[in-house]
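Now for my pick.
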Amino acid sequence: MKSNSAFALAGLGFAMLATPILAQNATAGPISTSKAWTRETAPNQSVGGGFLTIRNAGKTDDRLLTASTPMAAEVQIHSMSMDKGVMKMRQVKEGIAIPAGKSVELKPGGLHIMFIGLKKPFKLGDKIPVTLKFQRAGAVKVNFDVQSISSTSAMEGHHGGH
């Protein structure tokens, strides 16, 4: 009987390892990414936003310069802010500073990646391959999880919302 329960526990451990990771993590040198996600898009929608956390574990500042994907004609880095009750979005041409020893979160309502000229709609459950280009760390390939159109964070779409 004891060996059966040990076998069952081993099976449970294997099942836990086989569970898909919700948001892919990618690393290049001291730069790592986590919780990369985007929202599903409507069939005629031409733009989408991308969100993730970027961590710089190094001792030297780095900068996210550009991003690209085969799924869109162009990818830009944007900031969003409120000015006298008006939402303003602008391209951040100088990139985003990723200070040494810190994390920077790209999220709805703030800094984010903008996918422009979508080649096809982003569908729930898909993964959007994106290459982030950093000044020091170079290219980092990240898969953005496509979540529900109502998602507000990396994990929400996987739990059926809050």
Notes: The CA atoms of residues 74 and 116 lie 5 Å apart. Confidence is low (pLDDT under 50) at residues 1-23, 156-162. The longest helix spans residues 2-18. The chain is about 10% helix and 50% strand.
